[in-house]
Design brief:
Mean pLDDT: 90
Helix content: over 70%
Largest sheet: none
Strand content: under 5%
Radius of gyration: 16 Å
Oligomer: single chain
Number of helices: 4
Shape: globular
Number of domains: 2
Low-confidence stretches: none
Amino acid sequence: MNQATDMSKEELHQLTSEIMDSLKEQWDKAAEAGEDQLLHFFTATAYTLGSFIPFSMDATGYGAMTMTIVDSLTNGIQRSMEITGDRATMIKIVKE
């Protein structure tokens, strides 16, 4: 079993909160510095996530993990759009 399935919901929530808090702190700094720093924050974060994949699994899992990350990214965008009341249209393609 992988570590995520061995963790309780509370442990997963705590770990997620720690990751979110760390990223939020860096995002706040970038937001204060301006648009160029925000772009750098997003691209550096994406690059870092991508660079972890080959160290986390064998090559047969790269595609599935990439799709999981993209799905989580779009879910985060959609949820934040709901919170902010943004009425922009976002189309998400889902493979069943």
